[in-house]
Amino acid sequence: MSGTRRAFGALRYGLVVLVAAAIASTAAAQLDGSAGALMQSPANDWGPMWSPDGEHIAFYSDRDGNTELYVSDGEGQDVRNVSHSAAADRDAAWSPDGSRLAFVAGDERGDIHVVDVGDGSQRVIAVHDGRDWGPAWAPDGLRLAFLSDREGGSHIYVVDVDVDLAPPVRLTWGMAEQREVAWSPDGSGLAFISHRYGLTDIYMYDSNGGSLRALTRQADPSGGPAWAPDGGRLAYVSRIDGNAEVYVVGVESLGTRNLSQHGMADGSPVWSPDSSRLAFVSSRDGNAEVFVIDADGTGARNVTQNEFADGAPSWSPDGRLAFATNRDGNWQIYVHTPAPDAAWDVNDDGRVDILDLVTVAQTFGASGADLAGDVTGDGTVNILDLVLVAAHFGEATVVGAAPARTPRPSDASMIEDWLDAARGADDGSAGHRRGIETLRRLLAGLTPDTTALLRNYPNPFNPETWIPFRLSSEAQVAITVYDVTGKVVREIDVGALAPGDYLTQGRAAHWDGRNLIGEPVGSGVYYIELRAGTYRAVDRLIMAK
């Protein structure tokens, strides 16, 4: 047996403890909310859509034998069939006031129907022998835009909903093919995908002057457009970079940006009510999951965290996410409820660490409203705020956050001052005592007493991973990755390092998920060995792509 195999075998029996710790660590990291089934049904329910007022959820279900449109209240009660069609219904859209639903009936002609969700009454809109689809409500709730082939091709029409036998007005002409129309939030225009001149792009129709302009250039969108509620941007899906990605284009600036930037497929973008984030569906973790990403393209995180398929996200006005999932054996509607804001994550970076403590300390003595360091919410920043942050030190407030950043040796005198002040203000509460104990441990551990290999992150859903560690003395550091048979998969020469903590992505060892010859490794269990001087340690990681 080779030396590396002997080292691997000798350490293998200690891995049970490490794996148990990894499971606990992963569970603790999922602090950004929880999800539960909206309702229980042996049938399949999918395609949830929150009403604009947040009072109802519309969804599709086969509980009556075919695909029909249903509505429940926001808690999954009072479930009603509102379409009563003989065949599959589709393309449902809420009116702006949440009182009506437009949908395409599952009959031979595929007419657009409008149903009052209160009394169940229905009307057929713009009856014609042609095929109509994709209804989109104007913000005033009086008009519907839709697509139709009634005059050949695929063109956009607008009709007055409440005027009997009102003739629809055609907006687009020529040989171009249109699809997926969406009104701007202020009603001034319609965005849509158009294939013309051999190219597919997003266009904007000015509903006041009738002018038409392209918002993208050779973007080749395959999904969207989805308006941000602030009206300044549109999200869409394109394969222009080789795979399905979520893009954002400015309505005035016309600058486009790849927001999701990942090698696996992303799609179905929907904006949060405040336009600060988007939910989307991604296969980057090996199966379809719902992710949320900040509007600037940072902070992408998996909010469904399940080995089965999740999709079709829909935001409620108060920030909840409804989605469809087959995790229980059939398709059901789940609702993800965000966790309350963690005030002790002062800088909102997803982890509670030394930067949060320093932020509070820098604002000691300040008073007023909405202060970043006022963790207790009493209008002033003092040692009590710092102690509350310390009591939560090391916690993650989002899934997949990196380990907490710890102080440097030069911070010792500062932490000693904090500890003295905290002891002087001790009110005897358990939270205050936890904060004091954290400060004491931070002071004692500025130089690591021992070298240690820490849990890699993100884990387990990681096409690449960072391997954090601590050094108690200067050492030559190397990482070896093994498969489950003990065969070497990758050698990583980290180099000579000074004592300290190597925890963040800028300092921890990085494995890009490739083997010795540069090929991506498959999903499965791997083992990482840290060698630092005479120190050896092994831990387990799971690659799930």
Index terms:
545 residues; mainly beta; 4-stranded antiparallel sheet; 6 helices; 37 strands; 13% helix
Can you give a write-up of this model?
The protein is mainly beta and about 550 residues long. Among the domains are: about 5-30 and about 450-545, Immunoglobulin-like; about 175-300, Neuraminidase; about 355-445, no CATH class. The protein is about 15% helix and about 35% strand. Strands 1-28-27-26 form a 4-stranded antiparallel beta sheet, with no helix packed on it. A 4-stranded antiparallel beta sheet has the order 2-3-4-5, with no helix packed on it. A 4-stranded antiparallel beta sheet has the order 6-7-8-9, with no helix packed on it. β11 (about 145-150) and β12 (about 155-160) form a beta hairpin. α3 runs antiparallel to α4 (about 385-390) and α5 packs antiparallel against α6. The radius of gyration is 28 Å and the shape is elongated. The two termini are about 30 Å apart. Residues about 1-30 have low confidence and may be disordered.
